[in-house]
Design brief:
The structure holds three protein chains of three kinds. By secondary structure, chain A is mainly α. Chain A is built from twelve helices and two strands. Chain A has helices spanning 5-24, 31-56, 64-80, 85-110, 114-133, 151-175, 177-187, 189-194, 199-222, 236-246, 258-277, 285-308; strands at 138-139, 227-228. The model of chain C is unreliable at 496-503 (pLDDT under 50). Chain C folds into two domains: 3-238, 3-Layer(aba) Sandwich (Rossmann fold), CATH 3.40.50.300; 256-492, 3-Layer(aba) Sandwich (Rossmann fold), CATH 3.40.50.300. Chain C has helices at 43-50, 73-78, 96-104, 115-128, 144-157, 174-189, 201-207, 230-238, 293-300, 323-328, 338-342, 349-354, 358-361, 369-382, 399-411, 429-444, 456-462, 484-492, and strands spanning 3-14, 17-28, 32-36, 58-63, 66-68, 81-84, 162-166, 193-197, 210-215, 218-224, 256-265, 270-278, 282-286, 308-313, 316-318, 331-334, 417-421, 448-452, 465-470, 473-479. The chains are: A mainly alpha, B mainly alpha, C alpha/beta.
Chain lengths: 309, 345, 503
């Protein structure tokens, strides 16, 4: 169906990349490094799922990196204080949700433009965290890393949980009325209001959901190393937004899918190891990320031009 | 038909804007006084140290030049209804390019400086082409160039190289004084004066406002919308390059992470100064006042004893700037919401 | 049969403009009731009252026999009133099935969405209106007629008892029209009441049971279709007392200022338009909404350039590809949408007035405030613009005065060809006369005026010649002394024996 042409093109690009890697950098396809890569990127995918909701609703949130850092540190501190992971994870989710609701209140409640609001939040949250932690790591007690299980089991658990989450979220976006309302609001907020939907609450919910998912992703990140770095979330927002835009979610709202964003993230995640194997230095990564965002925006713009004409 | 009530309220809008700048001036004076009182002390040798010294004031002036230039660059962009998140990243890229031109290619200072400004304008031209030419949303384009420019700076320096050892003639741009004021202040004043004239005294400047209020209306008035919109982004790029030269001269170093995070301060200064984020309304004087408020805040905090003890000047100033930006945004929107609700009932 | 809808003595004014002056209207179940009237007669206001978008200042509304104290859009939908506009109000990025579902499903956020049910419902509704559209098509890929069908399907699905159709056949082919008629007839059979607005008299005769003619905000009568003929309908539409005096024309047309031949623009739906404008004359451009008058103006002003035909300005062949080029040729355009295109509401009067004449007033690109204030002050005086000062934002002025500012803006450019698009729409009577006098003055000074107006008396009173457009073409050029029925027939595409009185 041409309805999913954007998602299909991303899949095609992904397939081409994987193929190219297989031919020129077969070292990429070794199980252990691939598993590590996937587990490292799993939290980013979770955040990207939340970002999809916000972007479909025609907004943006560039403070997710700071939210991630705060939830990671908070989770780490709670774990270091002896809380069991069973409680730490929901706590992290709750903190993330509250941060998201703050954004939602400012954007949906006061009608402020989301780019500037979340820019202010990005800096305020990050500096607040720096003030609190002064860059200090949080050392985690034994038994937190990989939930106290072996690395392979821990990795499998995280990957499985992420997989389930994406499937459940995709199903919810498709089969729960609220999910469809997000599409409606992003497509035409005024028409939504006439149809009886409440666009402000839907927008608020999208930001809150993104926050909650960020908190969950932070918890997933905490269990992967013996320490929590406060800077762990820096730059995450760009990667997430790039993944979402590459994956076919339109910045102008109203369209996009979770599996498109997943494919987009995989494309981006492949870039870094691809650079390694192609002997391109890692310091090109940010420039390539920027170029990718621009190319995706141009592609979207050209597509829109063609369909309008 | 508009009733006399609306007439009053519309006049009230203009009065509000005028009052806005007065309010900002009051805030500036209060802020300055606060820092003077709490941040100045006499040390063991009997010399005054802290906020109240001339050196410190000149430091504030020096720092405000860079943020100020970026804020000036953003003012016409935001007036015209757009936004540019990439100015600080472009500053970093231009700094690195200048370093390479002078050190690796051995070009003379003036040629390198000219080339840097030209390249800055060219980079601004990338934004211009995508936003004004292809009509892509400024948000996502400048988010992309934000990453691209910083990324190119990192790639060009291989993530590690720093350029230092600049000729003293160049460093004097950032570190010396001329006619009692820091040299870069004169550059800043010149750009500020030029920007003021552009925005407030030229037809082009007025066209930015019209485009900001109503792009369609601008078209029907025969204004060259695409050309002028492209122009503000190119200009922003050139000004970012000038800011890069000053930044490098002041620090004596050109590094890829120059001016990281400055875009927040620049945008905050513009919005604090009364320019509406939606376009159309705003002034260069407001931006300058906003820059002053933020520069004094940033530097004044570093002189407060409690902040020195906590070693948290950067963090606190960042947080306060974020709060100020949100407060300024909310402050400009709440009256609109209140009047909208009153109209509906 | 019970009355689905009954309006009694409905009055509605917008500021000084009285859109409805005591209208009675009723709709029976199982009837197609046509609503006829020229532009500005009050049809859209009446419809907005019916859908709850406007509340009447006076009068009563009764739906299905129950008198309502107030009607809101939400209540109207619940009571089964649906309106199909010319511009469909659908979600462009969503599929047909989803659009229908959002219309029909209750708005509880945590309800499970059953796509199979949605598809089934959509298929059923679409087949009922005879639309061959796949439910999973995105709405933005549908043509306008197809989107219209989706809206009708939605109305049917929502169990609408009163369906209002506003010019539904404007952009349909013959075959699509027939299909639409079939739907209307089947709705009627189901006992639904249809209010059908159309300018096409043959449609009204083919489809409607009764027709109500609106004229100047009041009802000129409700007639069973069988008892009327075309001339009779046209007479009801245009007959009125002549109360307004128009300034007489003293000018003799001079050289040709503008000559267009075979001009067309595919995107704007214009084809084969040929017209000549002479210095000193006012040519009225008449036609119904959608006939292409504004599109023609946009072509001449370079907003949507022509892709066929030739244009000559002052005897020289030119291409007009942008408003700047048009302005350089001495063409000025006062647009129809005053608030969005004519003026910048947030900016002061003086700045609005000098905006287009910037090349003349501000050479070198530097603003000169003294000159600006003088120029603006001149125009405020000359056009009698009522404003607190030249620094007041235009948004604070009344509609008529805003229009004068828009006019001043373009007069300040000293154009050779002035195109006016609905210059007195929403303007009170006093300002109207002033604007008419100004137009006459302007023409008399040796310039050419193209006056687009839906106000028939205005066209008749102001024009030296009247060009009539219909369906994107220029169909007739009538001499200055023509009568209202002559112009209206040309606009409607009816033939009418010349010489028949208007009264």
């Amino acid at each position: 169906m041409s309805r999913y042409s954007r998602e299909l093109s991303v899949l095609a690009v992904l397939a081409a990349m994987l193929l190219a890697l297989g031919v020129w950098a077969p070292g990429f396809y070794r199980l252990q490094p691939l598993l590590s890569l996937a587990t490292r990127e799993a939290p980013v995918l979770v955040v990207a799922c939340g970002m999809v909701l916000v972007v479909i609703a025609r907004q943006i949130d560039i403070s997710v990196g700071s939210q991630f850092s705060i939830c990671s540190v908070a989770g780490g501190l709670l774990a270091a204080a002896g809380w069991p992971m069973v409680l730490v994870v929901p706590a992290s989710v709750a903190i993330g949700a509250m941060l998201g609701m703050l954004n939602g209140a400012l954007v949906a409640g006061l009608g402020l433009p989301s780019i500037v609001v979340t820019l202010a939040m990005l800096v305020t949250l990050r500096q607040g965290l720096n003030l609190f932690r002064q860059g200090e790591f949080v050392t985690l007690p034994d038994g937190v890393q990989w939930f106290g299980l072996s690395q392979s089991v821990g990795q499998a658990l995280i990957l499985a949980a992420t997989g389930v989450l994406v499937i459940v979220l995709a199903a919810a976006l498709r089969h729960v009325a609220l999910g469809r309302q997000i599409y409606a609001v992003g497509s035409d907020a005024e028409a939504s209001r006439l149809a009886g939907i409440r666009p402000r609450w839907v927008t608020f919910f999208a930001f809150a959901a993104l926050g909650a998912l960020t908190g969950l992703a932070a918890a997933m990140n905490v269990v992967q190393s013996p320490q929590v770095q406060p800077l762990s979330g820096n730059g995450m927002e760009l990667k997430v937004i790039a993944a979402v835009v590459v994956g076919g979610v339109a910045i102008s709202g109203g369209r996009g899918t979770l599996w498109g964003a997943t494919a987009g993230l995989m494309v981006l995640a492949c870039i870094s190891p691809a650079l390694v194997h192609l002997h391109i230095e890692a310091y090109w990564e940010k420039a390539i990320q920027g170029a990718v965002i621009l190319l995706a925006a141009i592609a979207e713009g050209l597509r829109r031009r063609r369909s309008d004409a | 038909m508009k009733t006399p009530q609306t007439l009053e309220r519309s006049h009230g809008w203009r009065k509000w804007l005028l009052r806005h700048e007065t309010l900002l001036l009051v805030v500036l004076v209060l802020e300055w006084s606060l820092f003077y009182y709490f941040g100045t002390s006499v040390n063991r040798r009997g010399m005054t140290v802290g906020f109240g010294t001339l050196d410190r004031q000149f430091d504030i002036l020096r720092h405000s030049c860079e943020i100020g230039l970026l804020a000036l660059a953003l003012t016409p962009v935001i007036l015209a209804g757009g936004i540019d998140l990439s100015v600080a990243s472009l500053l970093g890229l231009c700094a690195v390019i200048f370093g390479q031109l002078t050190h690796d290619l051995g070009l003379s200072l003036s040629i390198a400086a000219g080339a840097t400004v030209a390249l800055g304008a060219l980079a601004g031209g990338l934004n211009a082409t995508l936003i004004a030419g292809l009509r892509l949303p400024p948000l996502i384009v400048t988010l992309g160039t934000y990453s691209l420019f910083r990324g190119l700076a990192e790639a060009l320096t291989r993530g590690a190289v720093t350029y230092s050892d600049f000729a003293p003639r160049f460093l004097s741009l950032g570190q010396d004084r001329w006619l009692a004021l820091p040299v870069q202040a004169w550059v800043f004043f010149a750009v500020a004066a030029g920007m003021w004239m552009l925005v407030h005294r030229t037809v082009a400047g007025r066209s930015f406002r019209v485009i900001g209020f109503s792009p369609e209306g601008a078209r029907f008035a025969g204004l060259p919308v695409t050309r002028n919109l492209a122009g503000v982004y190119v200009l922003a790029g050139a000004i970012a390059a000038i800011a890069a030269l000053i930044y490098t001269a002041r620090l004596g170093q050109a590094k890829a992470d120059a001016a990281i995070g400055y875009e927040l301060f620049a945008i905050a200064a513009v919005v604090l100064g009364g320019t509406s984020i939606f376009g159309g309304r705003g002034s260069v004087t407001g931006t300058l006042l906003g820059v002053a408020v933020i520069a004094v805040l940033k530097n004044g905090l570093a002189t407060l004893p409690v902040v020195i003890r906590l070693n948290a000047a950067e963090e606190i100033s960042g947080m306060l700037t974020g709060f100020l930006l949100l407060a300024a945004l909310a402050g400009s929107t709440i009256p609109k919401l209140v009047s909208a609700r009153r109209n509906r009932s | 049969m019970p009355l689905l809808l009954a309006f009694h003595a409905i009055r509605k004014s917008f500021g000084a403009v009285r859109a409805l002056r005591g209208v009675d209207f009723e709709l029976r179940a199982g009837e197609v009731h046509a609503l006829l009237g020229e532009n500005g007669a009050g049809k859209s206001t009446l419809i907005k009252v019916a859908t709850g978008a406007h509340a009447p200042d006076e009068g009563s509304i009764a739906i299905a026999g129950e008198t309502l104290s107030a009607l809101t859009p939400a209540l109207a939908r619940r009571l089964g009133i649906a309106c199909i506009y010319q511009q469909p109000a659908l979600f462009p990025d969503l599929t047909v099935a989803e659009n229908l579902a959002l219309r029909l499903e209750p708005v509880r956020p945590f309800r499970r969405v059953d796509w199979r049910q949605r598809t089934r419902t959509a298929e059923a509704l679409l087949s009922r209106v005879g639309a061959a559209i796949a439910p999973e098509t995105e709405v933005k890929r549908l043509s306008m007629p197809e989107q219209q069908l989706v809206e009708i399907a939605g109305a049917v699905g929502a169990g609408a008892r009163i369906v209002i159709m506003d010019e539904p056949t404007a952009s349909l082919t013959r075959r699509e029209q027939e299909r639409l008629f079939g739907i209307v007839r089947s709705l009627r059979k189901d006992g639904v009441g249809v209010i059908y607005i159309s300018h096409r008299l043959e449609e009204i005769f083919a489809l409607a049971d009764r027709v109500t003619v609106l004229r100047d905000g009041a009802s000129a009568g409700t007639f069973p279709v069988g008892e009327m003929d075309e001339p009779g309908l046209i007479r009801s539409m245009v007959g009125r007392e002549v109360s307004h005096l128009y300034p007489p024309s003293h000018s003799t047309p001079g050289t040709v200022a503008l000559k267009i031949e075979g001009v067309g623009c595919k995107a704007g739906g214009i084809s084969e338009v040929s017209l000549t404008l002479r210095a000193g004359e006012v040519v009225g451009l008449a036609g119904l909404v959608g006939a292409g008058r504004t599109q023609l103006a946009r072509i001449l002003f370079g907003v949507t350039p022509a892709d066929a035909g030739s244009i000559e300005v002052g005897g020289r062949a030119v291409t007009i590809r942008s408003p700047q080029e048009a302005m350089q040729l001495g063409i000025a355009y006062v647009p129809e949408d005053r608030r969005r295109h004519g003026v910048v509401l947030e900016m002061p009067v003086a700045q609005n007035i000098t905006l287009a004449a910037r090349r003349r007033l501000f050479p070198g690109g530097w603003l000169r405030f003294g000159r600006e204030r003088r120029e603006a002050g001149e125009f405020v005086r000359r056009l009698a613009i009522k404003t607190a000062s030249v620094d007041a934002p235009v948004g604070s002025l009344s509609g008529g005065n805003q229009q004068k500012v828009a006019l001043a803006r373009w007069l300040a450019t000293n154009p050779r060809i002035l195109i006016l698009d609905e210059p007195t729409q929403g303007v009170d009577v006093g300002a109207k006369s002033e604007i008419h006098a100004l137009i006459r003055q302007f023409a008399a000074s040796g310039q050419a005026v193209l006056l687009i107006s839906s106000d028939l008396p205005e066209i008749l009173g102001m024009s030296d010649r009247i060009a009539v457009m219909r369906g994107g073409r220029l169909v007739e050029i009538l001499p200055g002394g023509s009568t209202a029925p002559q112009v209206m027939s040309a606009a409607l595409g009816q033939t009418l024996a010349k010489g028949k009185d208007a009264e």
